[in-house]
Amino acid sequence: MTASQSIDQALKAVAEALKREPRVLITCHVNPDGDAIGCLIALHRSMTQLGADSVMYISSTEPVAPEWHFLKGLAEVVRGDPPADSGTRTLVCVDCGNAERVGNDQLVAEARRIINIDHHADNTRFGEINLVVDGASSTAEILYFILERLGAEITPEIAEALYTGILVDSGRFQYSSASPATFRVAADLIGRGVDHTAIFRAVYERVPLSKTRLFCRMFEHLTLALDGRLAVAVLEQADFDQTGTSNESTEGLVDNLRAIDGVMVACLVYARTNHENEGEPFYRLSLRSSSAKVNVQRIARLKGGGGHAQAAGASVSGETANQIIGFLRTEVGRALSETDSEMPSRGN
Question: What count of Cα atoms within 13 Å lies in the side-chain half-sphere of residue 331?
Fold first, then answer.
């Protein structure tokens, strides 16, 4: 994240706004990842430290992926129905690209005030105060600089939550959004007590046997297309049932598809229960790109989703898995063709 004058002014403005808030409700997007949960915990701990009445809230009731269970404070998050006094609190949304991603339209509509802190390029600026730095590796990286300006002490617990967010959303520091500032922030957090080895192992190297079985199913259903540059795998409800897993077990699986030699775009398509359209197919798409030149966010937006250039997602109802694969072949093929056309031609 570049420390331009305009960003620095925005960071100060958000910090000053948070200082004036005696009562906050901090939330993130539904089905949260490590960045969202890390920010939730880090900001909550900091606001409480500074004397505010702070509550953490996630609208979705689906289990949080086991990768994040090591984070201290997760048990304190209110799930499902928001607190009865939520309408009297300032709603602080972290890592949430639009108001719909909060997962509770009434909560957003009745919020006394909304502060929106995010790094998604397609953020709709739905808050009264918006701090969106789309060049940042993660919302956790942005939050680190806010906490500095708040004057909050970055304790080992807060540092752990921030480091987790940065690690995950930077793609283990491999995405192009991982700037020199990202590494400096990570180094400072390690200096404050983060056990980076333990966090890496907790997130990436403690895989339940049931998830390993789902991993195998994913590769059984692998389809390679576009000369091996597109990898798509479909997981149906039967795959979850027969492996004893659920949707949270898909966390990180798509990265293994992208790791296949020659693959430039990977997509995991997995079935989800649609309570509003019972009986209709309902899938979640998790997209990854191995090159910043192929923007999967644009593809996800065609299905009402969003995210980042190299990591995006969408939910699709009323379409079969084969229809979705056909859509991916077309759109990824178009994106790859545009990339190919930008390549300099070889001389004779």
Answer: 20
